[in-house]
Give the backbone structure.
Amino acid sequence: MNFDFQQMKPVIQREFDDILDSYPTDLNHVREKIPHGGDGYARKRAILETASELCPVHIFPHYPFAFEMDMGENRQVCYVGLGNLFRDRSGVDFAPLHRLVHRVSSCNLGNMGNYTDPLHRTLDHEKLLAKGFSGVYDDCVRLNETETDPSRRAYRELVMDCCLAVRKIGLRLREKAVEMLRTAEDEDVRYNLTRIIESANTPWDAPVTMFDALNTILCTTLFISGLDGIEVNAYGQIDRDIEPFYRRDLEAGRITKEEAYFLLQCFLYKTDLHCHFNHERKNYDNGVSVMIGGCDTAGNPVYNDITDMIIDAYTENRFINPKLNARASSASPKAYIERLAALMRTGNNNLIVENDDYIVPMFQRMGLSPEDARTYVGNGCQEVICRNQVHSRAFVYLNTPEVLLDTLTGDSLSDDKRWFYRWGQFETSTFDSLYRSYLANLRSYIRTIAEEFAPYEKIDHEIYLEPMHSAFTADCIGNGRDISEGGARYNHKTLSLVGFGTLCDSLLRLKDAYECGGTDQLIRAVQNNFEGCEPYRLSLQNAPDRFGHSESGNEFARTLAHDLAEVSRGIRNGCGIEWRTSLFTYYMFRNQGSATGATPDGRRAGETFSRQMNMASLPDLTTAAQAMACLTDADFNDVGMFDIALPVTVTDNEEAHRALTDYIRTCILLKLPVLQTNTADRKTMEEERRSKGTHPDLIVRVCGYSAVFGQLSPDMQDEIIARAGT
C-alpha cells in the first residue's frame, strides 16, 4: 500500500470532486417521504428510514475511510443534510421570529438569524469510542426493561432507531465495497476496499484499531449532522482520543508510524476546503475544528506522537480546514509550545491557542464537573464547548456601541428602537447616571430578545429534535429526554457583545467630557461625524487615558467587563436557562461597525469597531497582553480572543522562534483565553491586493477562520492589511 500522502493527494482530490461537484443532487423521491407537521417522532423516523435506505452511499477508491453519504445538499459551509427537513416541515410559524430579526437589523442593534444555535455541537467522543452505537442501543434496551414512563420509553426507542439506521448505512457501505472489490485491479484500491469491508461495522460497534477509531469519528460526525440537522463540527481531542489505539496497534504490529501519519492526513484532508473540492469553494468556512494538546480528564498534560503528527500534517500540507485549535497551559511541555510557535511562523495562519488555565476554571464556574471541564474542545471559530453540554452561543451578536449612542439620544429615538428599551432608562445628567442608564438599556434589550425567543425555546423539540446527538450526550438516555427538551447534563445560553474596546474608550471620553464640562461639544461632534473638527477627533483617539494605554483606562475596562458579564443575570429563556454574555465577536466588529455612526472615542461613522476582545488601538504587544489580562477575571460564559498581527518572519531564525515561544507562554500565564495570530507580511499582502495571483498560496486568519488572501473581497483584504499595521 502506498502511504505517501503527497503522491496520493491529487488522486484522492479527483475522486472527491467526481462526486462532490455533482452536489446538490435531486433527492426529491427521498424528500417526498418526509411528512409535514404531525408527530415529531414520526417525522424523525421517516428521515432515518428514508436516508438509511435510499440516500446514495459512495466510496472513494483511493481514500481509506468509508463514510460518504449523499443527502442532497451541497457540502459547503454548515452541512445539515436531510435532517434539516425536520425543522422545515415542523409546521411552526416562524414569522414573528423573522420580524424580530428584521427589526434588530433595521435598528442596527445587532445580528441574529435564529432563536437558538444549531451549529456548535460536540459529543462525548470517549463514550463513542468505548461503546459505539451498539453500546447505546444496549443501554436503551436495559433501561426500558424497568421503565414505567411511556414518554421515556418512547424516546429511548427513537434513539434505538437512530442506532439501527447507522448499522444499516454501514452494511450498505460494506456491500458497496464488496461489489467494487470484485472488479478492482489497483493494489491500493484493493487494500482500501478490504479494510472498509472489515471495518464497516464501525461506528455501530466500538472501534478496535486506529483506523476504526478515525472512521468512527468521521462517520458519526456526518450522520449526526446530516440526520439530526445540526452541525457537529468539533472532532474532539484527537491526540488524546486516538493515541491509545495507535499505541496498541504499534505494539500488536498492526500499523507503522508511516501508515498512521498517512491515515491522519487523510482524516484531516476530507474537511480541508483549500486542497480539495473546486476553486470556488476555497474560502468557505465549514466550521470544523480539530483539537490537540490540553489535558486528560485527570488534568495531566496531553502531548504525544499523534500531537506531533497532526502538527507535521499542517506544516507539510498547509491545511486551511479543519481549523487547528491547540489547547495549552502553564503545565504544557516546553517542546509542545515550541512546536506551536514553529507552526505559527510558517505563515499558514491556521492555528489558535486556547488557554486551559482560563477555560477549564470558567467551565467549572458554569457548573461542570472537573472531568467534563477538562475535555473541552474548540468549536466553530474559537468558541469552546464540553462533552455533555449544550451551549447555544455565537448566534446573537449585540451592537454595544449602538446602545450607547441610543442612550445618549434619549427622547428622540424612533418608536422601533424605544421598544427594545422599554425597561431601560435615559438619565444622562452625570456620567454615573449615563453609565447606569447604558447598562439598564442593554439589559432591557437582552430581556426583549429573551421574551421574543421564549415561545420557540419551549417547543424546541418540535423544531430541532436531536436523538442521534443525544445518544452521546449525558444524561439524555438516562433521563429519557432529548437535548432539545433539556435532557443534557449541562445547558447554557450566551449572547455575544460586539465592540468592547470601542465602547470602553467611548465611555472614557464621555467621562472626561462630563468632568470638564465638554459633554455638549463631544455629542455635537459625534452627531456631525466629526466634520470640521479633525484636531478634536484626533485628541480623542490619542487621549492617554485609554484601554491598553494607561492603568486607569485598564481599571475602567476591568469594571466595564465585570458589569457586562453580569448584565443579563436573572433573565431566563423559555426553558428556565439563564442568559449569559461573552466577548466573542466573529467578524461582526467589521459588519456592525460599517453600519454604525461615529462614536465618542473619535471613531468615524462606518469605521470598524475594535476587534474581538481587543482594545480599540493596540500598544506594543507586551503592553497589550498585560492590559488584556485585566478582563480575564470577569465571569463571562464563553471566550474572547486576543487577535494580533505578529512582527515575526517565516525564515529560520532562532531568536525570533524563542521570542514567539516566550510570548505564547506569557499570554498563557496572563490567562488570556485565546491567542490568534497572523504572521503574513504587510508588503506581501499589498502586492497580492494590487495584483491578484502574485502570492496565490498566501493564507491569512480572517477572524475565527483562515482563507486564501487573494480570494477575499477587496474590503476584507483592506481590513486585514490595516490590521497588520497595528
Q: What stands out?
A: The chain has 29 helices and 17 strands.
